[in-house]
Amino acid sequence: MKAALADEDGVLLENFMRESVEPAVSGSTVAVCLINLTTGELVVSNLGDSHVILAERDPKTEYPYHIRRLTQAHKPEVPSEEARIREAGGTVEKRNGITRLGELQLNPS
């Protein structure tokens, strides 16, 4: 999974370098859901404002019911998220009226 995300990051960087500034001015999001069918364990994760939604099916009608969002959006204008970003060494900036993640220096290891 880590390699898949790194590959996508490379595609976006190549697109930025050769074709368009769009990857540099747009946000990034991802939502992941892993299910261990043996144990029934469900693990979800998200970055940005993508979400994982769980909808249970009514066994009689097959229609979904009891629909719920399992993740919360990570928005830099939310005080707790801004604090998390700053604690990780990042910055939060307002550009063209939109709050954006500035720089975040991550250890690549």
From TrEMBL:
Keyword terms of this UniProt record: Hydrolase, Magnesium, Manganese, Metal-binding, Protein phosphatase
Family of the protein in this entry: Belongs to the PP2C family.
Residue ranges, annotated region (Disordered): 75-109
Organism: Penicillium subrubescens
Keyword Metal-binding part of the UniProt annotation: yes
Domain PPM-type phosphatase positions: 1-109
EC number: 3.1.3.16
Bias type Basic and acidic residues, positions: 75-96
Top EC class of this enzyme: hydrolase
Any one Gene Ontology molecular-function term assigned to this protein's record: protein serine/threonine phosphatase activity
InterPro entries (alphabetical): PP2C, PPM-type-like_dom_sf, PPM-type_phosphatase-like_dom
Domain of life the protein comes from: Eukaryota
Cofactor(s) needed for function: Mn(2+)
Protein known as: protein-serine/threonine phosphatase
SUPFAM superfamilies registered for this protein in UniProt: PP2C-like
